[in-house]
Amino acid sequence: MTKRNKIKKLVVMAMYAGKIMLKNGAETYRVEDTIIRICKSRNIKYVEAFVTPTGIFLSVEYKNEIFTYVQRIKTIKIDLNKIALVNDFSRKFVGSNMSVEKAMKDLKNIDNANTYKKYIVLFFSGIASGFFTLLFGGSYMDFFASFISGALLVLAVQYLNKLNVTYFLSNLIGGSIVTSISILFSLSGFDFNMDKIIIGAIMPLVPGVAITNAIRDSMSGEFLSGVSRGVEAIIIASAIAFGVGITLKFY
Amino acid sequence: MIFIVKQLIYAFLSTIGFGVLFNIPRNCIVKSGIVGTLGWLVYLQIIEFTTSTIAGAFWGAITVGIIGEVFARVFKKPVTVFIVPGIVPLVPGAGMYYTMLAITEKRFIDAANLGSETLFIAASIASGIIISSSLSKIYKKQGVRPE
User: Fold this and answer.
1) Angle made by CA atoms A107, A208, A127, in degrees to the nearest 5
2) Does the CB of A94 have a partner CB in chain B at under 8 Å?
């Protein structure tokens, strides 16, 4: 294989590593760092990466030739484990003499890795919602109501994401589902606090990753992605609020 | 005393729940729970001293940020793994809900009060994280030798 092809393969591999990180919710400066570090570790002198939350642009110079790759990222889901795995991988790749083929195989394994089973995620989202209700002064009865509505909410949102519904609509429907379930519980005649159930059960929708990334990106001088992630967080928050508000009106 | 212990247990478990929801690595679940619990402890104590939820959220976020950066350095994981679940208990979900409730009941003055408090809490969480991550950058620059 010529040296030229080798460089091409390396660049494709670095791009794949960046793609996995970005589509699982990494900060853009971390993606840039990783790509540049991977390329520089194999004696490429000029590497420039420009990452936004929706795409990666990468330019590499080798022997007066410039290779440019553009990768568009469409879906963003949140899987912090994969970011940690690619982080470990890039450290290993830079520090050792790993071949590009082996690296590509490792990355494919990371991309297809499954962190938690579906029912475990549902169970823990119930736990998160339930204990949040307790944290804000709900009773133990409210805990169970919140547990059930939190788990159902995540189930519904997972289903909606599979249908490729836009995130605004899925958050709006999510807020509306939580509120309807809480209204049903409070209409059942037992002593439920509707407010506390809604506050707890709504939490799995809160855009924690978007907020954190918006702040951390802006702090690293990535204002473009800072602003776009900030807007994402604001839109999600208002979608949840609309969903809750619309449904409360019926009550 | 019992109140605080109970609150800390609740904060620990809900942080863990969010950790799984955000798919953090298996061996970081308990650690992120600790980050969230300490943030909540500081939040509660500051509220007791100052009676201001905004100040509480600010110092809570600083705690989460600093401990998250330390854990990230020690356990060699991206810092978001610890910060994202850690700040969730501080996020003003309740404020958001009560604001919406006030709007639907046409209590607009209450809505403005609650809404501005919610916004300020969000801003104070943001500035808490900003401060702790800038502090960690200063530390990083001094610690690493220039290449």
Assistant:
1) 95
2) no
The answer, yes or no, to whether ipTM is higher than 0.90 is no
Residue B143 scores a pLDDT above 60 = no
**Residue B116 CA to its chain's centroid (Å):** 19
* CA gap B2, A227 in Å, rounded: 43
Residue B96 lies in domain: 2-143
Contact A203 B18 (CB under 8 A): yes
> Considering chain A, what percentage of its residues have pLDDT values greater than 90?
18
Q: What is the DSSP letter of B124?
A: H
What is the C-alpha to C-alpha distance for residues A214 and A216, in angstroms, rounded to an integer? 6
CB–CB contact A126 B17 (8 Å): yes
Q: How many domains does chain B fold into?
A: 1
Q: Which of B3, B7, B8, B10 to mutate to test the interface with A (most CBs of A within 10 A)?
A: B10
| A92-134 residue pLDDT tens | 888 888 888 888 888 888 888 877 888 888 999 999 999 989 9
A193 has pLDDT over 90:
no
Q: Using H for helix, E for strand and C for coil, what is the string for A170-208? A: HHHHHHHHHHHHHHHHHHCCCCCCHHHHHHHHCHHHCCH
Give per-residue pLDDT as tens, A207-222. Answer: 877 887 888 888 778 8
pLDDT of residue B129: 87
Distance from CA of A1 to the nearest CA of B (A): 32
Q: Does B131 touch chain A (CB under 8 A)?
A: no
* A229: nearest Cα among A22, A19, A81: A22
Contact check, Cβ <8 Å, A209/B22: yes
The strand order across the sheet containing A46-52 reads A46-52, A55-62, A65-72
Would the pLDDT of B144 be above 50? no
A231 part of contact set with chain B, CB < 8 Å: no
pLDDT recorded at residue B145: 38
